[in-house]
């Protein structure tokens, strides 16, 4: 097999091939030595990854650095990126004992749809950089697991390709571009193709400063959804072409009154993603959104914005159960999902872990990641004395603030 063919294998296949053909590879052209190095290292990782962090390690070895950094990185000092994960670690679980947990059930209902767990796939851009099957593989894995996938506006597979790949409940994430007609067209396509809700991302008037992408001169591919509408191939000598593209299209003047416009062009429920304060949660209720997603965009936008788990309760309290509050940011374990639910989230969305599963093993890897998190959640529930998702309550947690109050 020559080097160009090797590039088209998925990472699992590459590792497998290298393990069978080390000599062939050592003899092959020098320009694939980096890839070979990655695969040999990946191959050395023993057995199957047993948690999300191990998937991430595998992918760090297997993916080209430019793509790994694009997926894993955050904004500027990456303070919020670290905090999104660490803030979970400061929250402790208060388990109850002597409860019959011989039967546990992680299923729940999200926006009226029954799912196998309070887990959703967060919208993340450009899955084909992780795996040649891109969002179609992710869609199939989420359908098999019966969890809702939110397709990114910036997907590498088209809305139609994802919709026809399998039957499932899916939501569509939207950016409102300066050229609003492009966004309106995407909403119509999502609606026509059976998507069940529109999730408007509201934390991106401009692109956050992702320094790894700038240093790597990250190159975003042409997005098929926009063919004939807008060119995503922007040339720039300086830094990442993502920044140059985003500054051309993102609409920094989008504001609360525009939610009315969006609601007027679709019959689908509109949720907003990127709320971090009680003030904005109250405004969201006023303008009549169908749900809120507490999110800091996986710490890729405003550095030193709070870890999302630290502000979830503030939003939940403001909303008073009038609309569902979903959550994302830093979820890496079933215990994290349990904690977010105890603080009032209806469900959590998973961003990077899904990409790591996809990059490592395609559709099967995404399935493994979802199942790992589901199993971990189910075990956490059993060990905490909760048979169903509804049994998880605020009294199952002790946050830093709770512990401070105890001392006063
Ligand atoms: C590589 C990457 C691409 C993303 N692309 C989008 C996007 O296109 N639209 C969007 O609303 N959010 C996007 N997000 C943010 C995710 O929807 C989600 O908020 C975040 O990943 C959750 O944090 P986690 O990765 O720690 O789970 C992206 C995040 C990552 C890591």
Automatic annotation (TrEMBL):
Broad enzyme group: oxidoreductase
Enzyme Commission number(s) of this protein: 1.1.3.15
Catalyzed reactions: 2-hydroxyoctanoate + O2 = 2-oxooctanoate + H2O2; a (2S)-2-hydroxycarboxylate + O2 = a 2-oxocarboxylate + H2O2; 2-hydroxyhexanoate + O2 = 2-oxohexanoate + H2O2
Stretches assigned to the FMN hydroxy acid dehydrogenase domain: 44-402
Subcellular location: Peroxisome
Classification via PROSITE patterns: FMN_HYDROXY_ACID_DH_1, FMN_HYDROXY_ACID_DH_2
Binding site for FMN: 123-125, 152, 173, 201, 273, 295, 328-332, 351-352
Residues involved in glyoxylate binding: 175, 210, 297, 300
Flavoprotein in keyword set: yes
GO biological process: defense response to bacterium; hydrogen peroxide biosynthetic process
Active site per UniProt: 297 (proton acceptor)
Annotated protein name in UniProt: (S)-2-hydroxy-acid oxidase
Protein source organism: Sesamum indicum (Oriental sesame)
Upper taxonomic lineage: Eukaryota, Viridiplantae, Streptophyta, Embryophyta, Tracheophyta
